[in-house]
Amino acid sequence: MIRRLLPLLLAFAANPAWAGIPAEQEDCLGCHSDPSQTFDLPSGEKLSLYVDQDAFAKSVHGEALRCTECHTDKTSDHATGELKFKTRRDVTRAYYEQCKGCHFANYTKTLDGVHYAVMAKGNDKAALCVDCHGAHDISRPGQPRTRISKMCSGCHAEEADVYAKSVHGRAAESSPDVPVCTDCHRAHDTTDPRDGQLAMRTPEICGRCHTDEKLMSKYGLSSKVVSTYLSDFHGMAATLQRKQKNAPDARLAAVCTDCHGVHDIQSSKDPSSAVMAANLQKTCAKCHAGASASFPKAWLSHYEPTPQKAPLVWGVQVFYKMLIPFMVGGLVLQIALHLWRVVVNR
Asked: To bridge 254 with a disulfide, which of 73, 94, 152, 258 should be the other Cys (CB 3.0-4.6 Å)?
């Protein structure tokens, strides 16, 4: 018995990464710490059985879970060569079902997401839990946040490359305030980007950051961009369409991404930005065919009307703010006087 345990004891003593790992793990790591451990699946794929001890010890589960809490069908003396999986995808599907035991709320959210929807239609490349979080090296979500975009790039390389060159992507490395993929697309209940209703929710999504006065002032940006959008023609039309029942997916008015871009958003001062003054005519022409060079000037941008900026519009607003209460008050007074006269005459 001692001869059988001696190699494991010596291996444990030589591996500080095992310190703090529950005693039950020692038996598992005695075999699974060997990088050459693999299993030939019926599909012809090789499945690595190696567990990086350092990564596992530092992971969020390292000191919290025993191996058998996830690998519920295995014991410390299980026979080798016993795997029921035919493909690597079968393995990740099994992990997916296993994760719900502890993370049921997030598991339930995935059922409403685009990844689950395409998987249900037979797409085996759709992301599951371990594809994003990893298996034995799981870290806390968003540590660091830049990992999220890099992780998504595994499947969405083109979008990730465009994002990396955008105003958000370039600032992501140095600022924790910058949105990453999951801030806009959500993590577990990721919406299909082809869903027309997602586009209609764009002002709400962008507004999470761009209506935050404290955050925007930190970067010298206006926090009025959403309110000014909602008060102009585009915003009003988009809001009415969104409130309609059975509204068509085809948008009736532009939303944030139609002008600013999606993953390729740039500062309005950047020469490549679609909303830079020199590029506005081309941007407007995407919806307004034949838009002239002066066409964009009819739009107030995201400025609130003031005597200095758009004085005519400001004057009209002030006039109507005074006129409408006066007119309504006058009508109410007229009705009251008529009623009073009727009462007096009786």
From this structure: 258
